[in-house]
Amino acid sequence: MSEPDSETGKYHPAEGPGREPKANAVDIGEGHRLEFCQWQGETAGVIDWHRNKAGAWCCGWVAFKQSKWGLQFKSGDVGWDVIQREPLTLNPSLLCKTCGDHGFIRDGKWVKA
Ligand SMILES: [Zn+2]
Questions:
Q1: CB 46 within 8 A of CB 37
Q2: Residue 64 domain-assigned (yes or no)
Q3: What distance in angstroms lies between residue 108's CA and the mean position of ligand 1's atoms?
């Protein structure tokens, strides 16, 4: 992981063409796959992979609050609340700023908003 915005922690893992989820990404249904990202010895968050309306892979970085990653930025604790680690439940919903995809991760599954 590299080059987040030092002020806000915003991070764009998939900028540029030709990116796709790694083979170990977890299928959570509805065409979504989660890539768990480690940083400083703990899970910092997930990359939420999904298809855009054109059928190409799109993704967004979803930091976990209270992780070392989430706590390092000037704007404070950035990211999503981890309601439950296993199976994963996050709050609030995930809205992709790139393609508009919107839904929730609840009990390890993607739930459309
Ligand atoms: Zn998207």
A1: yes
A2: yes
A3: 19
